Amino acid sequence: MCGIVGYVGSKPAREVLLAGLKRLEYRGYDSAGYSLQLPGELVCRKCQGRVSELEALDSGKAVSSTVGIAHTRWATHGEPSQKNAHPLTDEAGRISVVHNGIIENFKVLRKELQKAGVHFETDTDSEILPMLISQEVGKGKDLFTAVKDALARVHGTYGIVVLSADEPDTLVAARYGSPLVAGIGDGEYFVTSDVAAIVSHTREVIYLEEGEVIKIDLKGISSDNGHSSLIRERIEYVDWDITEIEKDGYTHFMLKEIYSQPESLSNAFRGRLDLEQGTAHLGGLNMSEEEMRSIDRIVITACGTSWHAALIGKYLIEALSRIPVQVEYASEFRYRDPVLTPGTVMIVISQSGETADTLAALRLAAKRKCRTLGIVNVVGSTIARETDAGVYIHAGPEIGVASTKAFTSQVMVLSLISLAFGRARNFLSRKQGLEFAQQIIAIPEKVAKILDNSSEIAEIAREFTYVNNFLYLGRGVNYPVALEGALKLKEISYIHAEGYPAAEMKHGPIALIDEMMPIAVIAVKGAAYDKVISNIEQVKARHGRVLAIATVGDIDIESVSDWVIRVPDTSDMLVPLLTVIPLQLLSYHIAVSRGCDVDKPRNLAKSVTVE
Ligand code: AGP
């Protein structure tokens, strides 16, 4: 999705901006551009395509500029093209704006300005911004005031940074519903929509508040046009560094992230398990045991992979604490009139903490006075800031568009929450809690064992290079894993894949099965094992090709499967943390063998900040 970088300092701004844009490429984009300030003028370059193509354009004399803004665009209004790329300028080319988000009333405003004789060049909603700002500047206002007043006229969401030819060494930035972070360096300042763009320069940041407008110049950052120094008190420290957003010798970020799961999973439970009491303590939850006992119902909402984690959360929370759980797609929840009682707790799950639908669902629940809890990866993100309380998953930056380590860390945190609720509500005994905690502690090593098998999985994956369809089946807590396996394959290999509860297959999808149809079946030892074997028999009877994800030591599975990938044994409720790993590797290796761009799949964005 769109990315923003802005810079004021003494270094060549073009280099800083282009390097920043490259760090944002993982988010997905279709065009890019920058504007640089020179004495009394702006130099703007834009192109459709990659940042490397933007870099190849001649920047002319602007090479010496030390102030500028840059953008990667993911088209919403107006096709991807050089014309529609940001920055967008006013008619005189003296005000330049980069914008993330959507201006909902742009058509009305555009008509108004057109009547007044303003000529628009692009098909974007965003172009209204430089035009409005220019109109305000024309009334004799300084840039900060003009931006503030122009924004008062728009409806929608924005993260913007504005540059003017007439205010040297100054940027004005503002946010509403789209994240922006300011970075403080040594005599230099940054502003970005994603810390990854600036973390090589500084780890001291200020997260802009919703609705805030700031001015950045060589004297610093101020939120009221230079009259306040209070903003320094809001500086936060980014707790990861540049090495975490580098490939580190791996061919793709996705592979690096799959391999980092033993560590990211340990980080998710580190310091949170109480082996004395057989429970988990999650400070961020901010909930007494009494409060945990008073929960009537939990609604979990999320999108995509995070929604799959939510489904696993339902199995976990209901099994361990007997609290009824409802899981909803955030995009559906936000447009319903959901029943939310005072005893309902709303959990929102989001890797990025910026997903527009999830954020809207959260705001709806907050409006209805529900207690809201976030399970979020990106520290300081909007969802993390707007929930009443929450637990960070501590997975570290996830760059691959296809989520892997964030998913397993979300499930890990959900298992900790379930344990805490189960113990507080006395549904689990201390002994049962302790056994569960010990199974949690053993997970990272078991994940590492599966990863050791990557070459075997790569070999199996080659069998599927040219398939057009894939079915994934699982039962119980492994049903969401089947959904997640199918989503991973679709996202990065473009093979059509469906996930189903194994027993549902006979109610329709069985019609698809023939010798061309590969079916991945999660068939680990546990309560539903015999039932799953029957489902496999039904597939085999129709000549389907079965890849079984089975438990180490299960010999019987071989007679009904064409391929078997094994995972170690664990508690029934924690098994998704293991069964999903081979499915992640399978989709990765299939996508690589099909020559797909694994880290930047077509049409996808890492963080979906629009509806
Ligand atoms: C996962 O592989 C996806 N790219 C996507 O489904 C993602 O999980 C979804 O957009 C939700 O994102 P979030 O967790 O950042 O809210």
Mean pLDDT: 94
* Structural classification: alpha/beta
User: What is the strand tally?
Assistant: 26
Bound ions, cofactors and other small molecules, one mention each:
2-deoxy-2-amino glucitol-6-phosphate
User: If you compute it from the alpha carbons, what radius of gyration comes out, rounded to the nearest whole angstrom?
Assistant: 26 Å
Task: Report the portion of residues in β strands.
Answer: 15-25%
Termini separation comes to 12 Å
For the largest beta sheet, what order do the strands appear in spatially? Answer: 3-2-4-1-10-9-11-14
Poorly predicted runs of 5 or more residues: none
Largest sheet: 8 strands, antiparallel
Helix fraction bin: 25-40%
Number of helices: 18
User: Which word captures the global form?
Assistant: globular
Summarize it.
The chain has about 600 residues and is of the alpha/beta class.
Structural write-up:
The protein is an alpha/beta fold and 611 residues long. The chain contains 18 helices and 26 strands. The strands form five sheets. Strands 3-2-4-1-10-9-11-14 form an eight-stranded antiparallel sheet. A six-stranded antiparallel sheet has the order 5-6-7-8-12-13, with helices on one face. Helix 17 (529-540) links the parallel strand 24 (518-522) and strand 25.
List keywords for this structure.
eight-stranded antiparallel β-sheet, alpha/beta, binds 2-deoxy-2-amino glucitol-6-phosphate, 18 helices, 611 residues, six-stranded antiparallel β-sheet
Blueprint of the fold:
Elements: E1 3-8, H1 13-24, E2 31-38, E3 41-48, H2 51-56, E4 67-73, E5 88-89, E6 95-100, H3 106-115, H4 128-137, H5 143-151, E7 158-164, E8 170-176, E9 181-184, E10 189-192, E11 204-207, E12 213-217, E13 220-222, E14 236-237, H6 253-259, H7 261-269, E15 273-274, E16 279-280, H8 289-293, E17 297-302, H9 304-321, E18 325-329, H10 330-333, E19 344-350, H11 356-367, E20 371-376, H12 382-386, E21 389-392, H13 405-424, H14 430-451, H15 454-462, E22 469-474, H16 479-493, E23 496-501, E24 518-522, H17 529-540, E25 545-551, E26 563-567, H18 576-593
Helix pairs in contact: 4-5, 7-13, 7-14, 9-13, 9-16, 13-14, 14-18, 15-18, 16-18
The structure holds 2-deoxy-2-amino glucitol-6-phosphate (AGP).
